[in-house]
Amino acid sequence: MASIALETMRAERIKLTSVQSPWWCFAVIVALGLGFAAMIGAVARSSMSIDDPAGRFHPTIDAAVGGVTGFGVLVLMILAALSVTSEYRFGVIRTTFIAMPNRPLVLTVKSVFIGVLGAILTGVVGLIAVYITKAVAGEEAGAQLVFDGDAGWRPVYGIPLFAFFAVVLAVGVGTLLRQSAGTIALLLLWPLLIESLFNLFGSFGREVMPFLPFANANHFLGIEQSVDFHWGPWGSLVYFAVFTLVVFGISLLVVDRRDA
């Protein structure tokens, strides 16, 4: 089984690195993460000239890495989803399943391979983003950009965890929908729009918000939200991970039972 998994991972590596789109996605993640960090630092530095202290902007670490957590991970999810839906679109998935009849293993290896790559990339970019923001902002504006305790470090070391599970979720959704446009639309609208719409439903929305997956992921990353969660940051990570694994598990069951 180990040798089969290694051969499957080798095949996934070849498929991923033999086309240009993944490299462009990685470049976009780096550009978004570091560019957003530099912009946040510049805004913070310029705000120091405001006479009213209340109008000055002192970015925190979760704001400095916002380009990675808010946009970079979305690009990574699109890449992960396309790694599945593109194979369905061009019929490559049939060849893949003929060469490797164990379909759940194929999807698992694909998720782990892209997830680990994405986790490493986003983690490194997130750490660099903090130092870029601090350097651009200057000593006064960047006073809150310090790694102090778990709350200070979690927005950084939480990025790889969030990125990994986001990739697994994207592969699962892509496998269930098997259609690129629909999958990308859902993955983009889900965290950016759909979850925020629950704020419009009054008390019902407030009751539902603590159970939304990306709201829990943001809670773990230390992003401020007007949500009364029933657990702490690590409980939110567990919730997001369980939700992701449930969706992925359903996709494994479905792909093993329907035609490619």
Tell me what the structure shows:
It contains 11 helices and no strands. With about 260 residues, it is an all-alpha fold. The protein has one domain (about 1-255). Helix 7 runs antiparallel to helix 8. The longest helix has about 40 residues, at about 105-140. It starts with a helix and ends in a 5-residue tail after the last helix. The mean pLDDT is about 90.
Structure summarized in a few sentences:
The protein is mainly alpha-helical. It has helices at 2-17, 21-47, 61-64, 66-90, 92-99, 103-141, 149-177, 180-194, 202-208, 213-220, 233-255.
What's the helix and strand layout?
Blueprint: H1 2-17, H2 21-47, H3 61-64, H4 66-90, H5 92-99, H6 103-141, H7 149-177, H8 180-194, H9 202-208, H10 213-220, H11 233-255
Helix pairs in contact: 1-6, 2-4, 2-6, 4-6, 4-7, 4-8, 6-7, 7-8, 7-11, 10-11
